[in-house]
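Q: Two folds, back to back.
A: First:
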Amino acid sequence: MEGFRKNLKKSLVYGGTILAGFILFSSAASAATLFLAPSSGNYNVGSNFSVVVKVNSGGVPINAAEGTIVFNPNELSVVSLSKSGSVFNLWVQEPDFSNALGTINFGGIIFNPGYTGASGTFLTITLKAKAVGSTILVFSSGAILANDGLGTNILSAMSGGTYLLKTSSAVPQTAPEAPAAPSAPSGGVTAERSSIPAPVTKSPTHPDQSKWYSNNNPEFQWDLPAGAIEIWLVLSKKLSGIPQVRYSPPISEKKLENLVDGVWYLNTRFKTAAGTGPISSFKFQIDTGKPDDFEITRVDLDDLTNPRPELIFESDDGISGIDRYEIKIGEGDWFNIEPGLAGRPYKLPFQSQSPGVREVWVKAMDRAGNSASADTKIVVKSIQAPAIEIIPPKIKAGEIIIVRGGGGGGGTKIVLNVLKLKKTGHFGLGILEFAGIAEEKIETKLIKTIETVTDENNNFEVKVGGLEPGAYILRAYNEDRRGAISDASNDVLLEVEGKLFFTQFAEWVPNAILRGFNALINFVINGWLIIIAGILVVGLIRLLIKEIIPAIVREIKKFAYIFNDYKASGQLRKKGKKMQFEIKELYKDIKKELDLLERIGRHRGLHSDEKYTKKKLEKYLGLLKSLK
């Protein structure tokens, strides 16, 4: 029993020790900090002083850290940044600063086994005091990564500094002495490491680093250099993200899935026997969401006759931004407008100028190709339509008719369309009866368009002529100075008649008599010319009969002979092809017989009649061979 108690006591003590150690380790792991030394001090305006950026690993080995410090550029300016004495071996974010923006950026890596300590020097900043007062240096961002193979960020706190800047009568404090720089690794590792190439990353899904994509499953590829034993990756929202996820053996491609929208960086580096190479960063941008929903509003409701209705629409996209808007009016094609035209009245093109109701679609496209759309219906009302006065329903071919009418304002353009009726099945009933079949669909063809303007009394007058016999519709429109077009005027039917036979005959008889009389006079006066012309005609007829016609006949016969020869040669070619086929088949049969005799002769000698047959077959075979 006593032994049992001793063993139980020993177990409890041992377990408690392990638990306490675990608690202490966990506490230390969460206590890594970035801080400034000194964190306070008094300095003269116009003088320089130094502040050291320190890192406390919290008792856990670390292998990377980064940070950004901000300051008031009206009170301080950075003179220089020094890496001397730093515990960091490689800089993924070369220390830099901007006195205009008041920022200092840095990021470094420590080779295995990493750094463990409470006051490791990161960077020394030399500052110049510019104005009297209290000023501060503040960490705006930072990270400390544990050397655990996972890149765990164990940063728990960042402590800046407050400094009092005084006139020259104040006594300046001396900046802390920076630790000596660590010696370079032996064996020339640094020189060898510089020869390790940076990965050249490509993406078949997101090839252009400046563009946005709606695909949130990016794929990446790179070529592995000779001697690569590992590749390190990190997916980061920052360009300076340090690769921590290791693949051994190294992979040459990687696919990521279901990433959230935004700007991303895939940072990679190779490791060889000589060490790790430089970091390569590939930027890619993802936007899977469509732009915000929006509405279309018409703003010119006080004038619905406006031929270019004015609309307002605007969407927004908080990720990639609006690239363009696309618009479609009625049955027309889509067309693009710049995003800067949204949010203010946009005049539709003259595509919508004729009166009526049309549907308008607007589509907002973001830079990743996502879209949101809206639609509305717009009404364009007609301006005052013109009126055509009643005109004679029939005119004769060749006559000119004057079309008169009124409507619109003084100086308004009148457009008169002359349309010919294609369907004239009822035309024999007369133009007035023709008007009675208005319910039947009648096809028309626009023959001509005539334009004029109204006078000061809003009247117009148009001359129409040159119409062939048939049925026509006259139709007019008003067009004002804005380009607005009215509804059509009243339709006026017009019949253009051809001349009747007896009228044509009556006109022909006196003309024929007059022409005959003139011919007689000319014959008397110019009889000798007619005689000469007659002799020439007789000679021409004789030449035609004796020479030209026989020559034509000879050419026709020659052509007939050539045609017959060609036809005969065609038939001969057909027979030749058939005969050639038969020769080939006969050649095959004789060859088979000869082969049979050859086989018999190899087993026994051929009889005299067999030899005779073989000789004849060989002769025939040679003859057929020459004909093939």
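A: Second:
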Amino acid sequence: MSARLVRPMVLLCVLALGAKRAEAIGDEYQVRGNDLIVLIDSRWAGNAHGGYYPIRIRLTNRADDRTLTFRFTPSEQLPSVERTIRADQNATLQFTLSVPMVGQGSYGQLSILQDGREIKDLTRQISLPGVEYGGFERTALLVVSSANVDCRAFEDAVDRSGSTMSAVTMGGSAMTRTSDHQVVSSESLPDRWIDYSGLDMVAISLDALAELDRERRDAVLGWTHTGGRLLVFDVGEPAAESERLAELLQIPVGADEWTAADPARRRVSRVVTQESHRQPKPDSAWLAQSQTFSHRALLVGEVYAFPKDPFPGTARDWAWFLGTIKDRQHQWTQRHGISARLPQSHSEFISFLIPGVQGVPVYAFLALMTVFTIVIGPLNYLVLLRRRRLYLMLLTIPTIALVTTVSLFAYSAVAHGFSVQSRSRSLTVLDQRHKTSVTFNRLALYAGLAPSAGLTFSPETAVFPIHAPGSSFESRHLDWTETQSLTSGWLKSRTRTQFLTVTHRTARGRITIEPPENNRMNIANGLEWDLEAILVADATGQLYWGTDLAAGAGTRLTQASLADRNAFLELLIRHLPEPPEGAGSEDGAFFDLGASRTYSPYGRAAPVKFANGTLETSIKGLLTQKAALPAGTYAAVLRNNPDVEIGVESADEQAGYHLLIGYY
């Protein structure tokens, strides 16, 4: 067969395999052995660019009490994950093994160990989502339903939205994902919000949402609070009038915060689906009315309410829906500003270094090693030869080597020490009305000597690594037994390391704000953090300003003048991320930034900008609006870290920046 025929056939095979791996993946199976009955459910969607992939496990122990370890071992670039549980006799347990999707791997094996020994015949292969390459990105949808749901029209709308039109080319052909959705029953849902962190949308009926137990419903709402899009259908009435919906979403009943659909945004389809020439399809299944659906903010995310079931709908219907989502927030990389799975062109890494922490002085070390080579070799030999004591080389060579090694170690210790240094840039969004907060934190760490226990975060904090240009995957380990313990590979000694963390938590602290009188407003700081400055918008939108408010203290704010607003804007631009002076210069003070992009076997990776993520766009919104705030909100600059997790017990923070946006 000629080479001209072989090459197209190989490309077709590769594309077919790529499309198969690109779809929502996973399986449900049961294994039995050693008096154990284990049901494994790994069906899920999303995680193409990051998030935690939930492997749900239901275990029944028919033997005596025992301790079991469930371990996921990757076959390629993914972290190894384990969780140890105590199983009582005849007990049935249900839990989740969450795998951080922070590498390019897509499969591994799940094994069960007792007393450190693997139980035979219970080990199975687990398939996980592959990486999404190129400039396209599909929207990941999870539908919660006990019945089959037709999502083809939704996938056609995603195609038409343009999110998949820019595909990686390979020999003139294109590799695109064919779909990214999954339908699961409510019984298999995980009970922590981070297990939904790889998704873009979750669709669930109002009845199914009501039937969820409290932990699972809180997990879905917590994920929505952090930026997800929740679709609630079969509401049966307009969302603003549904007391049942308001109770489940933990929001007040009313029309003020709900926005009705705009039928004028419906567009005529310009792309013909592959099946359209085989059989005619209706142009629309939804009514072109404002009552078709409505939406409102839910902290950082959004909830969409449909009085009826929107599935299957048509591509034009779903394109109308997708068109209501601003700034492509239904895409993972747009919300977070990174890809946690690919070492993409995060050239912004260099803009968030810890002040005073220099990189390895390459040229200085090369010069020192050159001098060392000359001294230990020719010079040492000539000096001893001249004195006719060559036998002393047995002593001088190891002595010179020891002195050089100790000198290098001492220089490094003096320059950087053994402690951990950090830099944080955080945004906390606090909803005092519902005692909920979400914190986004860009975190830089540098350890003179990496902590032996690694990094530790709570199970309510999602941790996504930000890759330096030119970096490659290194093995990592995560233990969920007691908390989220990143035991090895996440923070190395004398290596610049950066993360994006997202935390959802219950927050009982509040700033008590009284209605203004005589152009003044009394407030009391019931938070545990000192405020450097605060700007408050009353019920009419009038701004009030104050400074230096300690935790537990009260003060009286005055109406904000133009000078006050400018002072607040000055605080907002303090410690802006920017490349340090001398970065990338020939003196070798910083690592080489020549590789601003990385390449995969499938093509060039698309750039992702951290500046487009929720953290930076929220700060930018305050700047562009000249510190104008919606009524009933406030913004405050904090003096110190407001309990933002950094993974270690203590660190010397440099150039910290902490912003608080609150709803009261």
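Q: And?
A: The chain has a mean pLDDT of 85.
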